């Protein structure tokens, strides 16, 4: 068996074309175009690249982007003040604070200060907690992108055995909750899990987000499984790789996502989706 490779870039392009139509529809109704404020604190090169890519994606879709580049020495109070100002700005529908932040910044306080209805990253406690009850305003972008990939491939989630490797607050835990909400049976594995293979071998759908290059090898995967590789790792030679031995596992899986070009493009695409949805809600409230 050779796995079918999921083209995340192609799906992202199709979705972004649809999103551009939604943006034009908002403007045709006389509503403000969706606005996304991206806050970058400090001069981390990788963060700067991520922010630049997000701004380009916004521009290509018709979303107005506002980039706030703040010094790494900024105080906690100053950063919170900027967020409060953006909360009150009706032209801003989404607020994203690029991580990581300098050590003097209280990250939980930052996340809870962003207004729930503008938390397009889905990291506010309300949105995270809402995943448990199915009432979240915004789902975190990376797990949301994985769900969109599965749906686009017409893969059944209901009743499937799903194993999520990695228990982070950003990917692993919300991923498990979102798949449970779709009636999958989910197990979460992490760094302390003993004999990881005994779990991964049971997975109909295996989602790997551990940040360990080549962690999942063929003998750990059931024949015919769907393998979603969320990991992004830079090797010493500069090559980008995932958490899955792609060449080996592709010989056993029925479907697999590559790195790069799989889940990555979908993460930014879901950020656009959440921002547009926020603008649509704001427009609906004004029409009442």
UniProtKB/TrEMBL annotation:
A Pfam short name: THF_DHG_CYH
Name used for this protein in its record: Bifunctional protein FolD
Name of the gene: folD
CDD domains in alphabetical order: NAD_bind_m-THF_DH_Cyclohyd
Reaction equation(s) it catalyzes: (6R)-5,10-methenyltetrahydrofolate + H2O = (6R)-10-formyltetrahydrofolate + H(+); (6R)-5,10-methylene-5,6,7,8-tetrahydrofolate + NADP(+) = (6R)-5,10-methenyltetrahydrofolate + NADPH
Keywords: Amino-acid biosynthesis, Histidine biosynthesis, Hydrolase, Methionine biosynthesis, Multifunctional enzyme, NADP, One-carbon metabolism, Oxidoreductase, Purine biosynthesis
Biological process, per Gene Ontology: L-histidine biosynthetic process; methionine biosynthetic process; purine nucleotide biosynthetic process; tetrahydrofolate interconversion
Pathway assigned to this chain's UniProt record: One-carbon metabolism; tetrahydrofolate interconversion
EC number from the UniProt entry: 1.5.1.5, 3.5.4.9
InterPro entries associated with the record: Aminoacid_DH-like_N_sf, NAD(P)-bd_dom_sf, THF_DH/CycHdrlase, THF_DH/CycHdrlase_cat_dom, THF_DH/CycHdrlase_CS, THF_DH/CycHdrlase_NAD-bd_dom
Keyword NADP on entry: yes
Function of the protein: Catalyzes the oxidation of 5,10-methylenetetrahydrofolate to 5,10-methenyltetrahydrofolate and then the hydrolysis of 5,10-methenyltetrahydrofolate to 10-formyltetrahydrofolate.
GO cellular component: cytosol
MF annotations from Gene Ontology: methenyltetrahydrofolate cyclohydrolase activity; methylenetetrahydrofolate dehydrogenase (NADP+) activity
Similarity section: Belongs to the tetrahydrofolate dehydrogenase/cyclohydrolase family.
Species of provenance: Sphingomonas lycopersici
Record note on quaternary structure: Homodimer.
Keyword Amino-acid biosynthesis in annotation: yes
Chain ranges of the Tetrahydrofolate dehydrogenase/cyclohydrolase catalytic domain: 6-121
Tetrahydrofolate dehydrogenase/cyclohydrolase NAD(P)-binding domain ranges (all copies): 140-282
Matching SUPFAM superfamilies: Aminoacid dehydrogenase-like, N-terminal domain (SSF53223), NAD(P)-binding Rossmann-fold domains (SSF51735)
């Amino acid at each position: 068996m050779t796995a079918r490779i999921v083209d995340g870039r192609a799906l992202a392009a199709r979705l972004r074309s649809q999103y551009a139509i939604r943006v034009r529809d908002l403007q045709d109704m006389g509503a403000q175009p969706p606005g996304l404020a991206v806050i970058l604190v400090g001069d981390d090169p990788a963060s700067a690249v991520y922010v630049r890519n997000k701004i380009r994606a916004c521009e290509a879709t018709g979303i107005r982007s506002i980039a706030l580049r703040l010094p790494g020495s900024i105080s906690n109070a100053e950063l919170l003040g900027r967020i409060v100002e953006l909360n009150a700005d009706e032209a801003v529908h989404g607020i994203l604070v690029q991580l990581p932040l300098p050590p003097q910044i209280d990250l939980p306080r930052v996340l809870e200060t962003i207004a729930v209805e503008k938390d397009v990253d889905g990291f506010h406690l309300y949105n995270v907690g809402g995943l448990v009850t199915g009432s979240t305003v915004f789902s975190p972008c990376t797990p949301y992108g994985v769900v969109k990939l599965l749906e686009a491939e017409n893969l059944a989630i209901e009743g499937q055995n799903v194993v999520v490797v990695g228990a982070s607050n950003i990917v692993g835990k919300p991923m498990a909750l979102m798949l449970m909400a779709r009636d999958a049976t989910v197990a979460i594995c992490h760094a302390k899990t003993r004999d990881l293979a005994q779990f991964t071998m049971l997975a109909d759908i295996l989602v790997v987000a551990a940040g360990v290059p080549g962690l999942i090898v063929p003998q750990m995967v059931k024949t015919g499984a769907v393998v979603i590789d969320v990991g992004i790792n830079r090797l010493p030679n500069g090559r980008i790789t995932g958490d899955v031995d792609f060449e080996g596992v592709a010989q056993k899986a029925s479907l697999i996502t590559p790195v790069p070009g799989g889940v990555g493009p979908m993460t930014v695409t879901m950020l656009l989706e959440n921002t547009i949805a926020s603008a649509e809600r704001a427009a609906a409230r004004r029409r009442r």
